[in-house]
């Protein structure tokens, strides 16, 4: 059935089609002319702002607006944790800058979908004051992590303190940008609430005869070409995880082709170079 408006395969009558479309109306955006010269000038003076603009600010259908990722990650917090005071402040910012709409993402971050570009500098300054510009979206410190053994009865191993140590290793934003797109996900047991299986690097807490240990997987992805991460070798101890992740990232940086992401390198070269870097030659 279908028609020529993108409903191919669905037998929808006009009334049903209009009912569905009515749920996806664009908000009533007031025109807010933007001073792009002021944004460019700030980028030139402030490398942190320039980096945040490159990584956390995304184009919008309306050229006067932007979609902004607020990465709730950093060395001052557990992944995805906001305090009650921060939530109050974020509610206020959402009202003022994002037409009262904010969303929580499955990567434990927040998105403001309707920010006027005219307000970007003001919003950035407010987020800096809250410590919410430390994280860079989809980069090494933007770790998804479940509560693990500290808070979950089902866990095999702790996850939050391990994620904290890994985050610490990648706290330099210039290093994170040099590494590029890298999703690290961690779960405290096979239930996979931290989506370890779909991380470019996955860390899974396991119980080895009563001792906490961590299995490392590589190559998971939730992109259109989705894949499940593959175990690359024997589990390591909690103390060894940060070194192991650093070793794998270094191996990637050594063997990547120009502009190749971690996932692309993994798909090109496969398991062996990473396994060798982590466990040595057999
Ligand atoms: S993955 Fe396991 S440990 Fe983590 S929250 Fe889920 S059930 Fe708990």
**Biggest beta-sheet profile:** 5 strands, mixed
H/E series, N to C?
Answer: HHHEEHEEHEHHEEEEHHH
Termini distance? 59 Å
Give a count of the beta strands, DSSP E runs of length 2 or more: 9
- Any low-confidence stretches, pLDDT <50, length ≥5? none
Question: What is the share of helical residues?
Answer: 25-40%
Order of strands, main sheet, comes to 5-6-7-8-9
Could you tell me the strand content as a percent range?
5-15%
Task: Tally the helices.
Answer: 10
* Helix/sheet category: alpha+beta
Can you tell me the overall shape?
globular
Mean residue pLDDT: 93
Rg from Cα = 21 Å
Ligand catalogue: iron/sulfur cluster
Task: Draw up the topology in text.
Elements: H1 14-22, H2 36-45, H3 47-56, E1 57-59, E2 65-70, H4 84-97, E3 103-104, E4 110-116, H5 120-129, E5 144-145, H6 160-169, H7 173-179, E6 184-187, E7 201-208, E8 211-218, E9 230-231, H8 241-255, H9 262-269, H10 272-279
Parallel strand pairs: 5-6, 6-7
Antiparallel strand pairs: 1-2, 2-4, 3-4, 7-8, 8-9
Iron/sulfur cluster binds next to loops.
3D architecture notes:
The model has no long low-confidence stretch (mean pLDDT 93). A hairpin with a 2-residue loop joins strand 7 and strand 8 (211-218). This protein has 282 residues and is of the alpha+beta class. The protein has helices at residues 14-22, 36-45, 47-56, 84-97, 120-129, 160-169, 173-179, 241-255, 262-269, 272-279; strands at 57-59, 65-70, 103-104, 110-116, 144-145, 184-187, 201-208, 211-218, 230-231. 34% of the residues are buried. It starts with 13 loop residues before the first helix and ends with a helix. Helix 2 packs across helix 3, helix 6 (160-169) crosses helix 8 (241-255) and helix 8 (241-255) packs across helix 10 (272-279). The chain binds iron/sulfur cluster. Iron/sulfur cluster (SF4) binds at residues 146-148, 152, 154-155, 187-189, 191-194.
């Amino acid at each position: 059935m279908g028609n020529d408006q993108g409903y191919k395969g669905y037998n929808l009558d006009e009334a049903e089609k209009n009912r569905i479309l009515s749920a996806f109306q664009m908000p009533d955006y007031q025109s807010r002319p933007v001073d792009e010269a002021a944004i460019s000038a700030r980028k030139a003076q402030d490398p942190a702002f320039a980096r945040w603009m490159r990584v956390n600010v995304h184009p919008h259908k309306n050229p006067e607006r932007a979609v902004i990722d607020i990465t709730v990650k950093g060395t001052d917090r557990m992944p995805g944790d906001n305090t009650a005071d921060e939530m109050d402040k974020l509610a206020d910012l959402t009202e003022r800058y994002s037409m009262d709409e904010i969303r929580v993402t499955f990567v434990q971050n927040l998105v403001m979908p309707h920010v006027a570009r005219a307000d970007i500098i003001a919003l950035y300054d407010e987020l800096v004051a809250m410590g919410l510009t430390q994280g860079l979206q989809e980069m090494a410190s933007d770790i998804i992590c479940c509560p693990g053994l500290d808070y979950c009865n089902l866990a095999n191993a702790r996850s939050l303190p391990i994620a904290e140590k890994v985050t610490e290793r990648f706290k330099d934003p210039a290093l994170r940008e040099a590494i590029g797109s890298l999703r690290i996900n961690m779960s405290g047991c096979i239930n996979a609430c931290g989506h370890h299986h779909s991380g470019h690097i996955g860390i899974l807490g396991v119980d080895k005869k009563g001792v906490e240990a961590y299995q490392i997987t590589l190559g998971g992805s939730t992109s259109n070409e989705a894949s499940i991460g593959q175990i690359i070798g024997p589990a390591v101890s909690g103390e060894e995880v940060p070194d192991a992740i650093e070793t794998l990232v270094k191996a990637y940086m050594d063997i990547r082709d120009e502009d190749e992401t971690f996932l692309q390198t993994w798909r090109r070269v496969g398991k062996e170079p990473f396994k060798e870097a982590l466990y040595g030659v057999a």
